[in-house]
Amino acid sequence: MSPFRKRVPLSFPDVGSIEGPLLEVVDLHTSFRTPRGLVRAVDGVSLTLARGRTLGVVGESGSGKTVLSRSIMGLLPGSNVERSGTVRFSGHDLTAMSLAELREVWGMQVALVFQDPMTALNPVVRVGRQITESLRLRVGLDRKAAYDTAVALLKSVGIPAPEQRLKNYPHELSGGMRQRVMIAIALACGPKLLLADEPTTGLDVTVQAQILDLLAAQQRERHMGMILVTHDLGVVANRTDEIVVMYAGRIVEQAPTVELFAHTRMPYTEALLRSIPRLTEASHTRLRAIPGRPPDLAADTQGCRFAPRCPYAQDHCRKEEPPLRTAGQGHQFRCWYPVGSAEGDAALAHNVAARVPAALAFTGTRVRDAGAATVPNGARVP
Amino acid sequence: MPELPSQVSLESESFGSLAVSGAGAQAVAARLPASGILSKKKGLGVTFWVCAAWVALMILLALLASVLPIKAPNYQDYSAVNVGPSAHHLLGTDDLGRDLLSRVIFGSRVSLVIGFVPIIVGLIVGGALGLLAGYRAGPVDTVLNAVSFVLIAFPALLAVMVIEAFWRPLVLWKLTLMFAFVSAPLLFRVIRATTLSFASREFVVAARATGAKTSRILFRELLPNIVPAAVSFALIGVALLIVLEGSLAFLGLSIGLPTSSLGNIINDGVNSNNLQLNPYIALWPSLYIFLLLTALNLMADRLRSYFDLREVTL
């Protein structure tokens, strides 16, 4: 009797013959039933991704990024979860699939690079078996072929002396090496879509950059679609084609990467960008953190979810949630008083004059000399 | 457009030098010393093997007791009552003229069976249930957990005494069964807790995603991770059970006389004036227990630190 479950036949269109986007997520909702009430971790997210493109998903902790990637995969815990919406992947609706069918998708079609390379690998199994396992089972390679593929994979992810490393246990490798092994495992079956869920958490900055470059290189070489989930806009800036900014389970801004940085519309995105420290600044410059905390996802909210922390927020924001508005090519945002618009400048000026703490913190003014503050974007405060 | 942290592009250079192709990679590997960080850890150490040899010797003696050139444990030599160690009686005799070496060796059979067999039974039963409860969670876990709490909440010594009162005569298998009953819930808890910490790790999720059945996940993915913790705890459990048998014997509740057990001999040795007249009776079995327990504890400790990989601090 095989220790593995039976496989189901499931056909996927060939690489070249996919029509339309590789991945199409429509109105995805994922909620968890908890004693505190329904926690809406992903609340109506829609996105599309073409083959060979990279999408960055950005947001702070608890904004629903990880749950989004797990929801796309269908890798959610079995009980107390509600998921609705559709996830279409190269012609198949992943949300309508049985577990047996999903197993054909996982690894072979869609692969996930887990968040923490320190704990994701099995500590008592040699690296070699962890890589070859899926090759032998899923692709059906024999021992020799699987071993050769594993050597080639390790080489391609930049691990020197792969033959020796295959014999190592995970604890004998450094964090960066382990993340490379994880990427090799994810790439083993040649997926068409790679989800990288904060692949650099727990690694030091030097290694982070190496891992991200490696992912980008692999994505180009294999012409995969890739979703890069991170909390660091700096990470996605030159490695993605398009960026989705999430806040409290919702997409608050979505644009091609260059457009997003050049014409930021959403105050939350702006605040994220401003919170990145710059090398040109004098030392001991205060970090421009976003004041307040992300909202409680279990509570029913009215109006814009970012309003309590937003320097631009007006009464209108607190009453009515803004819809996704379009500005320019493929640029969507969720704000009544967008950054860089006349309404936005006026709203900020109004808030500074009214000494709203979020606005004062944003402009870097202390409360007592708020009267003569200059707002970025050039608007003079009366 | 805001500037981005400049580290991003800077560090990608250093990667270039690392991801050298072919020949360079070999050179990097060659430069790693054989005893470097990537080589295997050192062995278990001298202490462990001395202790293991000692335990093995004790087990061997107990197994071969009936073929060893020693007197029968209940043979009474009336010409040598209460004598100290001599050429004739290597460890002396007790107040009834019985050879102490023979009694300790035959007595250790009882103690070793009572120490090891219930733990092995407990590891199999408690371990299997612990793996299942830790992995499955949900109602299975809740029920098994509650049962284990009830069993642990019973004071072991008292429970054994009460059962004994209704289940005479006392023979070895009954004691073994009762001790297994005492140790199984403890082993269950340790194994369940260790399983829990591994069950939610990504490699288990990945195994499920590849279609591995529950049995494969339990035995191939989880069990090897749990063995170190289980073994070191089990060795301490053996020591505890041997002491428990001693305590029961001291209360006159161990295996029925005249069969010797280490506890029985100690009990003999401290009864009436024996301790003043002939301290050897209590000394030898006590020393035996002391040395065996020390060896087991040292082994358990060494195993624990040997398998403690401390991955994250690497």
Question: What descriptive keywords fit this protein?
Answer:
heterodimer, A: 382 residues, alpha/beta, 8-stranded mixed beta sheet, 4-stranded antiparallel beta sheet, disordered C terminus, B: 314 residues, mainly alpha, MetI-like fold, 12 helices, disordered N terminus
Report on this model:
Chain A is an alpha/beta fold. Chain A is 33% helix and 19% strand. Chain A has a domain at 263-276 and 302-382. Residues 366-382 of chain A have low confidence and may be disordered. Chain B is an all-alpha fold. Chain B is built from twelve helices and no strands. Chain B is elongated, with a radius of gyration of 27 Å. The two termini of chain B are 40 Å apart. The chains are: A alpha/beta (382), B mainly alpha (314).
Short structural description:
With 382 residues, chain A is α/β, with parallel strands linked by helices.
Number of domains of chain B: 1
CATH class bucket of chain B: Mainly Alpha
**H-E order of chain A:** EEEHEEHEHHHHHEHEHEEHHHEEHH
Annotated CATH homologous superfamily of chain B: MetI-like
Task: Indicate the mean pLDDT of chain A.
Answer: 84
SS strand fraction of chain B: under 5%
Average predicted confidence as pLDDT of chain B: 78
Helix % of chain A is 25-40%
How is the largest sheet of chain A built, in terms of strand order?
A: 6-7-8-3-9-10-12-11
Largest sheet of chain B: none
Radius of gyration of chain A: 23 Å
